[in-house]
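Fill in residues.
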């Protein structure tokens, strides 16, 4: 009997379309002779859908039309199983549609990559393929992640951060923080990915305008020293309760001042068609890159060591991508860890003999293995103190 695997993608996030691309890639990569695969699309309003139309990426060009043809469902636990149940108008006509054995998470950004969905699945007792609640939350918040990485003595560029409240309370304080780092700097919304909302600030004259632009996306902004001349080098790690696998390194090639959304998802193309998913069909697999990275063996080993140290420091799980910058003098700086990377970083595993189908297989097996490991741990006691509770204050 095949395991039933729900592929969760979409979500209430700025990276919704990118998640749809990654999810559709995983959907077609998973071995359907081994697993019964059920695509679970989470719309931008948080509603959950299933249906055959989710298999064809072209159907996503019109998201409203797509949802109209799908079945709205909710996650429900009954005894020891988690079901996808149809949502109907009448409370007297609810029926179980399908149960799941494993949740395969291909969510990017808010409410999917940040621990929110992971927490729900933990409560329901459904194995899932990503990092846990805490590691996911830390991985999503770039500021907290920096603090954890700094505590573990990992190499970081000079950085600080400010909040919307801090900016409104004292613009001068924010200016002083940034001046200590020295221009140019780069602004990053603390809880977004895919290069959304990123701005390079070259001087104080640009500062207030750039602050207002970046605060459109988040209430907390990470500020880093901008490196003029650097290579972006990325590494992927797959881990489970028994050990870790480290991928080949890639060198990402950028066309703009920063690695932009277009560089990542449109291969650096200009003038890509507008609209959901148009011009972004390849996901992160479409990025211009060099594999393996054109760096020395010594740098390669050091970066891999740092990547594994960061992965362990955040208590990550499943597949992650850890991003680095290497300057012209071969100084290494760890940028961030992505707990559910675009396209699940499958392109980094080919030289290790792991194609996308095999990677999905590993992630599913690891999810079940971790769930069984956690089942053996004690989280409650077989006692009920309420039976002797007398009430009162």
């Amino acid at each position: 009997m095949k395991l039933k695997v729900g592929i969760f993608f979409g979500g209430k996030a700025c990276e919704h379309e990118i998640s749809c691309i990654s999810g559709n890639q995983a959907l077609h990569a998973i071995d359907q002779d081994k697993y019964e695969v059920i695509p679970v699309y989470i719309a931008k309003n948080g509603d959950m859908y299933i249906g055959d139309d989710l298999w064809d990426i072209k159907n996503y060009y019109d998201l409203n039309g797509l949802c109209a043809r799908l079945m709205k469902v909710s996650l429900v636990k009954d005894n020891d199983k988690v079901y996808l149940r149809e949502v109907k108008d009448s409370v007297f006509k609810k029926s179980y549609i399908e149960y799941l054995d494993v949740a395969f998470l291909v969510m990017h950004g808010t409410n999917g990559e940040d621990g929110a969905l992971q927490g729900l699945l933990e409560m329901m007792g459904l194995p899932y393929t990503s990092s846990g609640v805490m590691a996911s939350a830390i991985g999503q918040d770039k500021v907290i992640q920096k603090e954890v990485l700094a505590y573990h003595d990992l190499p970081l560029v000079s950085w600080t951060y400010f909040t919307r409240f801090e900016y409104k309370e004292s613009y001068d304080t924010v200016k002083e923080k940034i001046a200590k780092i020295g221009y140019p700097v780069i602004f990053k919304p603390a809880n977004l990915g895919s290069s959304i909302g990123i701005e390079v600030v070259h001087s104080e004259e640009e500062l207030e305008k750039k602050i207002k632009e970046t605060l459109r996306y988040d209430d907390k902004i990470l500020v880093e020293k901008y490196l003029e001349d650097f290579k972006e080098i990325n590494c992927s790690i797959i881990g489970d309760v028994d050990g870790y696998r480290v991928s080949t390194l890639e060198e990402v090639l950028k066309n703009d001042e920063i690695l932009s959304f277009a560089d990542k998802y449109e291969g650096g193309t200009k003038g890509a068609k507008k609209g959901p998913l148009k011009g972004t069909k390849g996901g992160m697999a479409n990025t211009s890159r060099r594999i393996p990275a054109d760096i020395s063996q010594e740098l390669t080993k050091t970066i891999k060591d740092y990547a594994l140290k960061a992965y362990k420091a955040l208590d990550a799980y499943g597949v992650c991508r850890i991003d680095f910058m290497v300057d012209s003098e071969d100084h290494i700086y760890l940028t961030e860890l992505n707990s559910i990377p675009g396209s699940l970083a499958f392109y980094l595993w080919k030289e290790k003999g792991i194609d996308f189908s095999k990677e999905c297989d590993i992630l599913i097996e690891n999810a079940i293995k971790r769930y069984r490991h956690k089942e053996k741990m004690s989280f409650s006691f077989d006692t009920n103190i309420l039976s002797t509770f007398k009430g009162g204050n």
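Residues 159-225 form a domain with the Dna Ligase; domain 1 fold (CATH 3.30.1490.20).
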